[in-house]
Design brief:
With 252 residues, this protein is an alpha+beta fold. It folds into 2 domains: 77 residues, no CATH class; 132 residues, Aminopeptidase. The protein is built from 6 helices and 16 strands. The strands form 4 sheets. Strands 6-7-8-9-11-16-12 form a 7-stranded mixed beta sheet, sandwiched between helices. The radius of gyration is 19 Å and the shape is globular.
């Protein structure tokens, strides 16, 4: 990973199409609009550094494999998204194919297995979606109540639905009589502000997860043990861990 700049060039070119200015120095890519700026730490996650509002950490393998989705994150962080209010949207169930296509297109980590999928529609266009697990009994909940996991939530690139997450959570809780909803937020990209605003509360934090990255394909594989690995084929990286958040239904 000695020549980071060459891997950054495609991302920089795409950011510049949105009239953003980019300046790279010493692993920091500064991206500026006419009103504000954000710093992207390019490289492997620095656990000793504090996560702040104007810096995000993006490993090289993500720079290479997900440049378009990184642009979406930057536009959102710079408040350049189009705003649509949730009160002007309707919620409808979406099928598995719709969910998979939507999350593969717009969620940073793409789609995954889920039990229930719901969409936010604005003027008949699907602009946001959430997927949930099946319910499970948890000791923290009263008899007859189940906990569900919010597995995926995102909006289309360039769009922020104000109140969208809150509307989806309230709708799902009413429909499933949910005791609570749990979710994980990757600390590499967020401190969970939008989830806290939607009614989630911090439960705990999970430790960083280690990964092996293929030096040719940049495919990322979770490291499940501490055995030696082929350093000619892979290099080791890790994320910053996750925030575990819980939404306690529609209780007052």
């Amino acid at each position: 990973m000695s020549d980071i700049k060459k891997y950054l060039n495609p991302l920089i070119k795409e950011l510049e199409t949105h009239s953003l200015k980019c300046f790279y120095s010493k692993n920091i890519l500064k991206v500026s609009s006419t009103k504000t700026s954000i710093n992207i730490y390019v490289g492997e996650s620095q656990l000793s550094k504090k996560n702040s509002a104007n810096i995000i950490y993006i490993p090289i393998d993500y720079i290479i494999t997900r440049p378009t989705k990184i642009v979406s994150i930057v536009l959102s962080k710079l408040n350049l998204n189009k705003t649509i209010f949730a009160r002007n949207c309707i919620i409808e169930k979406i099928d598995k194919t719709q969910a998979v296509n939507f999350f593969n297109s717009w969620h940073f980590f793409e789609s995954t297995t889920s039990a229930y999928n719901y969409g936010l529609f604005y003027k008949e266009e699907l602009i946001g979606a959430a997927s949930f697990s099946k319910g499970r009994k948890m000791n923290r909940l009263p008899e007859g109540k189940q906990s569900f996991e919010l597995i995926r939530f995102c909006c289309k690139s360039g769009i922020t639905v104000t109140g969208g997450l809150s509307k989806l959570m309230s709708y799902f809780c009413n429909e499933k009589n949910a005791g609570d909803i749990m979710t994980y937020v990757d600390k590499q990209f967020s401190k969970g502000e939008s989830f806290i605003k939607a009614g989630f509360k911090l439960h705990s934090e999970t430790p960083p997860i280690k990964f092996l990255v293929n030096k040719k394909t940049f495919e990322r594989i979770a490291l499940t043990n501490t055995e030696a690995f082929d350093k000619k084929t892979f290099y080791l990286t890790q994320n910053l861990g996750n925030l575990k958040l819980i939404y306690s239904g529609n209780e007052k």
